[in-house]
Amino acid sequence: MPYKQHKIHYFAYVQNWQDIRSFLEANNFSKYIKNNPNMSKTTPSWRAKLRYRFENTLSAGTVAIIAWLAIISLVVIVIAAFFIEVLNITNDPEKKAGMGFWEALWAGLMHALDAGTLGGDNGIPYRAVMFLVTIAGIFIVSTLIGVLTSGFSNVIDELRKGKTKVLEKNHTLILGWSPKVFDILNELILANESLRKAYVVILANRDKVEMEDEIRAKIPDTKTTHIICRTGSPLETVDVEVASPNEAKSIIILAPDDEPEPDVHVIKAVLALTNHPNRRAEPYHIVAEVGDEDNTEAALLVGGGETCFIFAEDLVSRITAQTCRQSGLSVVYTDLLGFEGNEIYFKEDKQWVGKTFKDTAFGYEKCSLIGIQQKAGKVLLNPAPDTILNEGDAIIVVAEDDSLIHYAPAKYAIDSKKISTEIKPRGIPTIERTLIIGWNAKGVKIVKELENYVAEGSEVVILTEPDGNAEKDVATLQTVITKQQISLHMGNFTKRVELQAQQPETFDHIVVLANEQDGVQEADAKTLIALLHLRNMAEQHQKDFAIVSEMRDIRNKYLAEIAKIDDFIVGANMISLILTQLSESKHLQQVFDNLFSADGSEIYLYPASDYVKVGEEVDFYTVTESAFQKNEMFIGYKIGAKSNKSAENYGIVMNPNKSAKYTFVEGDSLIVVADK
Length: 676
Hints:
Blueprint: H1 3-11, H2 17-26, H3 30-34, H4 37-40, H5 46-58, H6 62-86, H7 101-113, H8 124-160, E1 172-175, H9 180-191, E2 198-204, H10 208-218, E3 225-231, H11 237-242, E4 250-253, H12 262-274, E5 286-290, H13 296-303, E6 307-311, H14 312-324, H15 329-337, E7 343-347, H16 357-362, E8 368-373, E9 379-381, E10 394-399, E11 433-437, H17 442-450, E12 458-464, H18 468-480, E13 484-490, H19 496-500, E14 509-512, H20 520-541, E15 547-551, H21 555-559, E16 568-570, H22 571-584, H23 588-595, E17 602-607, E18 617-619, H24 620-629, E19 633-638, E20 652-654, E21 661-663, E22 669-674
Parallel strand pairs: 1-2, 1-4, 2-3, 4-5, 5-6, 11-12, 11-14, 12-13, 14-15, 15-16
Antiparallel strand pairs: 7-10, 8-9, 8-10, 17-22, 18-21, 19-20, 19-22
Helix pairs in contact: 6-7, 6-8, 7-8, 9-22, 12-13, 14-17, 14-22
């Protein structure tokens, strides 16, 4: 049978070298066997066996090498001692008797460890033997020092890689790495200030030392929070176990910026936690961000009841749409979502069981009530004032700190004469014109969200750089939008002449979006230039433009203050704040879903004159009563004269003490939670 035609068939049945040898001999391949010595030998030589065993022992690492060096040293010293005893060699010429085996063994050991020991030797035979021992010792000790140095270096490198398991408990675990991690850490540091010692563990597929150096550079003072970094993939169950997820109080999963499909990465990371073979029995408290709405169903299916998902792009679009219609709203959101200002808390207290929601609200001097969490877990924002609170219900409170939430009814008097009696209709859509400068994926969602607020006949004008995506998006919107007429203009919006051509002074709202095709700094630079042009046009026309601008880098927000814009949306920063808040309290998800949806109760800024008489001093008990009469909850106010002053929080004052007094003027606004 010819070999070339059937070699595959034959070799499928041979199992070892003996079979191959038999096969070749049967097919007259003796010449091939002679030219390939390995084929004619079925039993390895003793040298091959010895070398094989030796290499296997070396695979054990540094300890095995040290053991071999010790054995070689011992063999050399024993041989030298044997010769000294047998040949009756002595170090003292005056003595005829030899040193003896054990004495020679000790002398050989000293010579192997220290070459300088040769200086005290006497007698040529003794010197000759010890010289050989010393030479052998020099090589062995030198090798030992190198091995030890390399071994310790490897141990330190392994420790620096961050592979050891985290032993902390009740820590916040962050899986993944993105620019959002620094905002999240800053917020967690503020949230943990009241704790004596708190821990945050970060597990990411990055070098541990690089992560620590970057954190130290951007957050030099972590206060009472200790940050522990570990290197590993959030998608691998073995790596995740290093971060002790079973001991974590909450877990934040970040979408990577350098992945083509970040949502897939997040969903798989959730799977690595929820389906971990060694997971805890109790449900996890996981918070994760998802960018694409199309992945909503898969994310919810994987997360079950253990994961709060933030649909980042959709959420930022909703906030932008709400903010562009109400100057100062972004500042209110930032205050409520950050741990530095006022926060939203849940408080349960038996003192107010059986009382109405309104009576309970007046019992809190330094807090503003916005809703109820019923015993079953359902959240009601802005409930009817006469709603009765039952045992097990929790109130939802806006407070500067949870230590200030004390129910202590005080004597107060409502000055009804200062309450405005004029009733203005709420929630009636009007025809509005919106100018959108720049374009990105959030633009589509913003236009769709505006559809919930405006009347038929409204208009949206888009000015952006030539972009095929914008044309496709507008074509799609024109098929689903019914209340707004959409027009698209291509041009360089950093040029003043292009902006003036759109007559921005004629619009009710202006939205400036960052171009996602540009780099972060380049996109923000274009936004800044457009804002400066718009501010100058506003001064020329002596009109305040209602502008909301999107920034991609939070640091550029402060550069833009020169444009005197009072509303900025930094998408990444906003998502970081929400992720952190949810990691501290998962019940907030219902609150956020309500506030950021057009269907639920929202935060509004209405003229102060709708509630109280301007020009007259009034306390905030009276202001709260006026809001209750409109089925709204008062949580703060905006001073119109300070709306462009960043140093004074753009005029926003949240959660004032109810006994404090203030004189409102025209241009001031009240911040309320209302249905419309």
